[in-house]
Amino acid sequence: MALAEQDALGVREQLFHERVRECIICALLFASLYILCHFIITHFKKHTDFAAVHDDEDAAVNRIALGLCTFTLAVALGAVLLLPFSIISNEVLLSFPQNYYIQWLNGSLIHGLWNLVFLFSNLSLVFLMPFAYFFTESEGFAGSKKGIMARVYETSVVLLLLTLLVLGMVWVASAIIGNDAASRQSLYDLWEYYLPYLYSCISLFGVLLLLLCTPFGLSTMFTVTGKLLVKPRLLEDLDEQLSCTRLEEAAVSRRI
Question: Any transmembrane segments, and where (predicted)?
Fold first, then answer.
């Protein structure tokens, strides 16, 4: 019994250390992405945005919006890099299966990263980005005391109404498409069904928008590139240019 208890304690301790290691790695990766996204946003933003604001309240609102946008961009960048990271980590583990220093690239870490990316993607899509937009546009309710909290209250109310509207539209759409009794039930399974369904609908809309805009972007890119680059003159007919020059010279001579 004592040996079994020691084995169980050792297993629990190992699982605890693995969980702590995964949390530290995830925190370091997200901190690196957050710093990178902060530099990207501050590089491409306008000079008057988030900085040259004379009112302290507006400056604080802009800083909060900057932090939310940076967090969302970090999550999006992590979602883009997660699949290459998974492939590279799998190849590294297959190449060096006995190396102790790369054993942290295991399936548990990748699975945890996928869960965190999915959670933060829903959080950013449903709450953070709409909150940042409404927060910068809010001024507080009429008659209330001005300040940051007044803007927070107004933004929370508007965001709550928008959430109810979107969830109602998703519920009606699922009831129409499903056409059964289960799809017409109440919103009890909000986290397990409606949020992933809403995330899938918005992702589908983004993919359709990408497919629609990509041809126009490529055509614009080739048009701009064709204007900037100098066309090669290797295939030009020099005899034809000489004959045209002689004809122009003859025409000018007759006019003189």
Answer: 24-44, 64-88, 108-136, 157-177, 197-224
